[in-house]
């Protein structure tokens, strides 16, 4: 028996004081663990037991009634008692056959002493052994704890901890951290498809009141209390190692933020030696502005509904995990990327390392961001978040990065891109991209004072807007569709799902409100611009300067 194995009925029978004891029933339950020994001579004290006790009795309180004995043994089994020792004598001459049959069915060991024994000698012997064994376990646990903590200071500390855990327990172990990275020992261990395993224990790894990983252990047989104590100490050491990694990640993020602040806003900075070769390599550079929004575990819910599902996770913790996950997600698509917080947004800068690729750098940037957020959504930190991404135009020199960043922020400020239906979007997909190149004339609107833009809209189509508000008509939408259809009445009626005569009537109303010259080229251009500006303003425009 090793120090980590439970003390069982079989071990009890190997004690010298049990040399003359006999097992008369429940032979298949000899591996039941024993935590304590009790002398119990009354039939109504089973409710005071906690389980895994070995009960000693002379049977004085049981008498010769088989039903009483049977009820007594059944209560012990139901309370999780490990076994029953009976001193046979005039009070209890033999174990009834129905009791033996019941004990055999439930693998409940029944042990008899055919000659008188001193119960005090048994309890002193077993209790002394249990206390001494517990002391040795604590000393051993202290030694293992020191070893676990020492391994956190060595290279590949977590893997070394798992290896030591495997040697001490004989159990295959697997660690999955908060971003999905998996380390297993032995390497062949697959916790999702274990065979010849009785139990799977999942031990959470918690650092600063946040679960940062999970330790999965495959156990053959019943898990012992000692095994759980070893797992607790391993989890503590792993949590310290992951916490150290998070601290290093925080420092790297702060360093990245400093040089990215200069790069995004001034275009000139002293780049770190690890970054400069990439930024100045001549590859296409792409800049994105990201806005994270927590919408609860139900990604289809509105923002308000999502928040009611539970407390919002820490955005700082999420940012650290994004920064850690981003390089690997971007590398798959031939990009080198960096991340830094910028107010209520995140800035992402990426450099193309595959200029000869058949897929454009911008498309691979989108694929990389999708990959990044997909990985995050599968983690406990990213679940429930959605992201809106504004993309600036790609540039070929690092000095133009400030302009690309401004374009990305401007694209992000538009809550609904051109062509999207007006009104509130109740359920955004996990990632929404708004590219500056797709804004078209809205690029001009982003540079114009909002009040001047509203005045222009009022001057050009104000009468139509007022008429629609007062009478519930759709003259503004009719004008927009008619002009977008190259003034084809047939196509416009089809797009509006109305009869052509209805279209004719609406066009007569538009002429009456705008004047006879509204179809001339200069006026038509002004109207198209005003319609686009109206949609822009309705989409939730906000200035960024």
Counting helices, strands and paired strands, the structural category is alpha/beta
Distance between the termini: 74 Å
Main β sheet profile: 5 strands, mixed
Number of helices: 17
Q: Flag low-confidence runs.
A: 298-312, 421-429
How much of the residues is beta strand, in percent?
15-25%
Cross-sheet strand order for the largest sheet: 1-5-4-3-2
Shape: elongated
The CATH topology assignment of the largest domain is Alpha-Beta Plaits
Rounded average pLDDT: 84
Using brief descriptors, characterize the structure shown.
single chain, 545 residues, alpha/beta, Udp-n-acetylmuramoylalanyl-d-glutamate--2,6- Diaminopimelate Ligase, Chain: A, domain 1, Beta-Lactamase, Alpha-Beta Plaits, five-stranded mixed β-sheet, 17 helices, elongated
